[in-house]
Design a protein that fits this description.
Protein name: Bifunctional chorismate mutase/prephenate dehydratase
Catalytic activity: chorismate = prephenate; prephenate + H(+) = 3-phenylpyruvate + CO2 + H2O
Number of domains: 4
Oligomer: single chain
EC number: 4.2.1.51, 5.4.99.5
InterPro entries: ACT-like_dom_sf, ACT_dom, Chor_mutase/pphenate_deHydtase, Chorismate_II_sf, CM_dom_sf, CM_II_prokaryot, G/b/e-P-prot_chorismate_mutase, Preph_deHydtase
GO molecular function, one term: chorismate mutase activity
Number of helices: 12
Strand content: 25-35%
Amino acid sequence: MTAIIPLSELREKIDAIDRQILELINQRAECAMEVARTKIAEGETNTFYRPDRETLVLRRIKELNPGPLADETAVRFFRELMSACLALEKPLEVAFLGPKGTFTQQATFKHFGHAVNDIPVPTINDIFNTVENGHCQFGVVPVENSTEGVVAHTLDRFMTSPLQICGEVEIRVHQNLMGKMNDLSGITEVFSHQQSLAQCRQWLSSYLPGVECTAVSSNAEAARLAAQSNDKAAIAGAVAAELYDLKIIEKNIEDDSNNTTRFIIIGYQQPASTGHDKTSILVSTGNQPGALHKILGPLADHGISMTHIESRPSRQGLWDYVFFIDLNGHCDDDNVAKALNALKHNVHMLKVLGSYPKAVI
């Protein structure tokens, strides 16, 4: 029979381990500061954050983790540690779809950690403009939802933007009904972003039939409006309830329990290949027979797996479309490079939007 260790001994052991962890964390921070000094000495003043390097570190943590902590828990811890260390080198400024309390802010923290300077801006277009003008190094924008499909504003903006996709992050979206009231009775109006209203359509129809549903610019804005009234409610994430001091009346009211939103990181960096990457491209074929075959043929010939394709009006002519395509692999990979070279001879326009590491957490 295993002997029971006294609590006093266990607590002493934990205290000793905590001291060791703290020493090692600060040693890592000192190394990060040395990295910054070396980069400055070598003239690398714009590459303090390397998405490919950070992704490789986080993947290695998953591979090395022996448990009992779950891989996701270990990776989240190191994500925050790396974020804090990077802030000692040079704090990142990242634009997100505000105000504070949105899922886009949640995605920003999940990808960059909490040590970044997160800058809320009102629209997706403003995020692109903020990064293009150099006011922030990166931006985080939603690109697709598993229930409602693509975010058209994001895709359309890439038609004219010089920015690259530098990374991706996925957020499991849990929608909550919140307000100042204690229950559903007396609610006269529900505020939320139009996509969140759509994601909760069945629940609203079943539990709040006839109640007016009003679309606003963001879920955080919905929470702000609900906080100003005793009979208005909002649908938003749990963070918004904390920010605006609202009660969560009903949790997880989304119609699809697997509801997930994918966000992309935009900036001027071009991450190096990590071995587990995606490449996003924009293709214009013109209105011609067999247009889609001319796109898919070179990809199939070189064994490229296409993970997503979406068409959008090109705004250049009637029934003229552009295609947004996500591929497995990096543009520096031999087979991807050959496929893209063959593809550009089949289409009117080919724009590589970026090659970037697949999301780790």
